[in-house]
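User: Fold this one for me? It's ABC transporter permease.
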Amino acid sequence: MWRRTLSVLALLVLWQIVSLFMKPTILPSPIAVFAQLGQNLTQPETYSQLGVTMFRVVVGMIAGVAVGMIIGLTMGLTKIGEDLLDTWVLVLFTIPALVYGILCILWFGLNDTAAIVAIAVGSAPPIAINIWQGTKAIDRDLIHMGKAFRFGKATVLLKIVVPQLIPYILAALRYGLGIAWKIVTIVELIGLSSGVGYMLSYWFGNFSMIQVLAWTLLFTITLLIIEFAILKPLENRLTRWRPAAQIQRGAA
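Assistant: Here's what I get for ABC transporter permease.
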């Protein structure tokens, strides 16, 4: 933790030094930006705009994770699924997030549906790829053992496959979440009238660099809270069996 804190402090010090040689309209100091962020946090509109963006991200991610996991497991567990889907997943993965945003706005209009569908479609391919590669890396001997003990397919999937996929699933969630934030920002910026992306576009139109950085900082802090308050504790809890398993294997 102290290393992370030190790296953040070093970045803030560098930012402060560089801002001394820049005009406030180009690069305001971190002190001024944090002060503006604190002022924004006293206004109810800030939470409503952030809440709208979070709603779009959460709903879109739920759909993207569900589709990505189904496709990834299909590709990883069956040769036919891999042959049929791998090309399309890679093609969808290479399409820029901006394209998904534009297409969904044209298809669904300027509403929440456009943002949610764009997030789901944009986050599903990287999640599928992570699950696909993770499934190919699992210990097949455990699957054969489960079949030898006459476990059903559902039991093999839930008790043997999924626990080994937990690190890959969490990595996919992190990667998909980053893409989801980018997509929702783009959609809100180019077409919607609410959300963090809209506020960035609004203050950009007013040439307020300090507000642009303050909203960007709010965006970043939100992601860090999700990482260290939700994903990291979840990862520690779900993978706490792994060190013991490695010790037992080494002893054997």
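One thing worth pointing out: The chain has a mean pLDDT of 81.
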